Amino acid sequence: MNSDSEMRVPEGFFRKHRWSILLGLLVVLMLLDGLDDRFAWSSTAGLWGMSFLFLGVVGATERNTFLRVMMAVPVMGWFLLLIMAEFLGMTVNGGLYALAAIMLFGSMIISFRQLFAPVHSEYERLSSGVFGYLLIAMLWGLIYWRIEAAYPGSFNLPEDIVGQKAGFVYFSMITMTTVGYGEITPAASLTRMLTGMQAIVGTMFVAIFIGRIVGRLK
């Protein structure tokens, strides 16, 4: 076939810059978590922002794939629970947290796959890698937050961040980067093991990420 018959249909802006857009949205959502103790609206805005983030990940996933179908199911459940909570006044926090953990994990897997999949540019591959790295931090932070809520005292915490999700996401990020400032520390066997595992996962992700990027540039 000649080149004219093989001409591609131009793709939309989202398809070309999907991971850069999702990365920007994720950064905004993480910053909103930090405003939760100052502005009451930030929590609601964060929940709806997460909805669009998960919806965007489904849209960014390869079409007609099992992974896309598996991600679409919890996303629909998330929207249903969010509508029930916001408009019907029902208490569905447990379901929202469970679905958030599932979708964050699924989004992390999808973004990791982009390190090895064809992309429009290496800039998009870089964006997908950073997106996945931040998702790991958010997922682990959510797990830490719920563990502390279920078993108070699992962490040694400053008084000003007790019960705040942002504090645990922050702890997750400094654990992944092995900074370890020390103002938050695990105080139970389970949380100690989880923080150790996260440090290993974060180090391995960075090694694979850098190796893949350098390999593509050769």
TrEMBL record:
| Keywords for the protein's UniProt record, in alphabetical order | Membrane, Transmembrane, Transmembrane helix
In terms of Pfam families, this protein maps to: Ion_trans_2
Matching entries from InterPro entries are given as:
K_chnl_dom
Domain of life, per lineage: Bacteria
| Domain Potassium channel, first and last residues per copy | 166-215
Q: What is this protein called?
A: Ion channel
Organism name:
Shimia sagamensis
* Statement: the UniProt record of this protein carries the keyword Phosphoprotein: no
Show the stretches that span the lipid bilayer: 17-35, 41-60, 72-90, 96-116, 128-147, 167-184, 196-215
